[in-house]
Write a structure and sequence with these properties.
By secondary structure, the chain is an alpha+beta fold. It contains 9 helices and 14 strands. It holds the Pfam family Inositol_P.
């Protein structure tokens, strides 16, 4: 650990504990016949499990970190100060509702505008990812079963694998043609979606992940896992961090090319990219 880097080990352990509690609730409610589902003002889904998880995590934080602020998807912000926990109780609620196992609880810790620790827990997939500033990123079922993560070394956009959530979002955001052109440029594109796209970037299985419309709670925990695995995480415009609009996560080598394509629609010559020497 660098000499000037704060130690967030206890915060990561706490986030794992909270993720354990969240997993217990979500797995109990996943595919439950009496699951209660309603629509929020933006017409997105919210379930009784979303609310229950966020309430439990907030109670834990009120005891363990009473001075820290909390920002979540479903409930009002609480507290003030430089340390702020950012919670998405179920990222991928639509999947959760339909019985698709691709959903996760996202728990991030920010100090000021920077994410310094995070845990992404997907119990229906049997996977968990976590990271803290200066300590790297890991995956496994628990802290005791940790495997270090490293992004890919793919340096040419023509050789890249791209993951996204939906084409509709890009069209609605006004970047539809830019995104389609990017899809045509890369080697392979798949809609793995939501948190999973970013975790696949951190694992090196995917080289680029991007979405045009995201909130802070969708991005905070994913940001630190990607960056500590050696990648880059920015807005669509290339501004570092989980502040939007949207998100672009890459292995770092491809980042500037992807942002340029999405933002300006500058078409990339795949062959020229393949021949470009690495810096």
């Amino acid at each position: 650990m660098p000499a000037n880097t704060a130690d967030y080990t206890d915060d990561v352990r706490l986030a794992h504990l909270m993720a354990d509690n969240a997993d217990s609730i979500t797995m109990d409610r996943f595919k439950a016949q009496d699951l209660k589902v309603s629509a929020k003002p933006d017409l997105s889904h919210v379930t009784d499990a979303d609310v229950a998880v966020e309430e439990v995590l907030r109670k834990t934080l009120s005891r363990a970190r009473p001075r820290d602020a909390v920002h979540g998807e479903e409930l009002d912000d609480t507290g003030h100060g430089p340390r702020r926990w950012v919670i998405d109780p179920i990222d991928g609620t639509s999947n959760f509702v339909r019985g698709v196992p691709v959903w996760a609880t996202l728990i991030g810790l920010m100090v000021g505008d920077e994410v310094v620790a995070g845990v992404v827990s997907a119990p229906a997939l049997g996977r968990r990812w976590w990271a803290s500033k200066g300590n790297g990123a890991y995956a496994g079922k628990s802290l005791a079963q940790a495997k270090p993560l490293q992004v890919s070394q793919v340096a040419a956009i023509a050789d890249a694998s791209l993951s996204y959530s939906s084409l509709h979002g890009w069209v609605s955001a006004g970047w539809g043609q830019h995104f389609v052109d990017l899809m045509r440029t890369v080697w392979r594109s798949r809609a793995y979606g939501d948190f999973w796209s970013y975790m696949l970037v951190a694992e090196g299985a995917v080289d680029v992940a991007c979405e045009p419309e995201l909130a802070l709670h969708d991005m905070a925990a994913c940001d630190i896992v990607v960056t500590e695995a050696g990648g880059r995480f920015t807005s669509v415009g290339g501004d570092p961090g989980p502040h939007g609009p949207g998100a672009v996560a890459t292995n770092g080598l491809l980042h500037d090319v992807v942002v340029r394509q999405l933002l300006a629609g500058d078409a990339v010559d795949p062959n020229a990219e393949r021949d470009r020497p690495e810096n």
